[in-house]
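A quick aside before the break. I want you to see a complete sequence-to-structure record at least once, exactly as it would be stored in a machine-readable document. Don't worry about memorizing anything.
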Amino acid sequence: MSAKPAITGNKHLKMAERADIHELYEESVQNVEHEVEFMQTIFKEIRYRTAYLFREDFCGSASVSCQWVRQGEKFKAIGVDIDPIVLEWGRQNRLNRLPPADQTRVNLIEGDVMTTTMPPVDLIAAFNFSYFIFDTRNKLRTYFKRVHAALKNDGVFFVDLFGGPEAQQEMTEETKYKGFTYIWDQAEFHPVSNLIRCHIHFKFKDGSKLKKAFTYKWRLWSAPEIREVLVEAGFKKSTLYWEGEDEDGEGNGEFTPDEKGEADLAWIAYIVAEK
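That is the input. The structure line, written in tokens, reads:
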């Protein structure tokens, strides 16, 4: 992932120049309260105990890690990301907002998830499709093997994924939020390799824009491919959690086990892998 820095502090600048891209990103695409609740609920259902030690791979601003430790004084989190700029933003804007006692239970590490060594944890997550950066089966398998080795004996691994025919189209989609519009831009898709290049843009009420605030170069992995590689990496079982629909046919944010799914034009799901 690559991102442009924010410019702040001058009220005469246009809204795009004053915007903080990390705040915009989190408001647009993240719901950390839901993610932590979902992971903890599923972990308890399949392991009959509470998960206390959590590792967030490709953690970015570490918002999920910060939310994790809000569960109580027994909960600890490790966030790993290779980008020092976004990690520092997370320290200043997320970690520092926690009570001092909670801050001590979050360990942020600047490092590569493929090489960084940490103690075994209960649960590891790679969200926002971050692991799509691994563009060959060998690379993906190597990463999954490292995750498997880093989990406790009954540890669980969570990833999200997206798909459907629209995921393979070169298209843009706009979503309006208070004060700005989020634009998801699938700029390139190559069907032979399944490589995809996407951007996130923002536009504002004053007409200003933040173009290519974030750029991603990924391989679009399918659900069966991911689950097959998880088995190759040593995981005993994986379960796909499919999103339900509201009365308008849109995703309702509720995810349940499903071994078939629906032939939707676009969908988001989770895969939960058990060691």
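Two observations worth writing down. The first strand starts at residue 2 and ends at 3. The mean pLDDT is 92. We'll return to this after the break.
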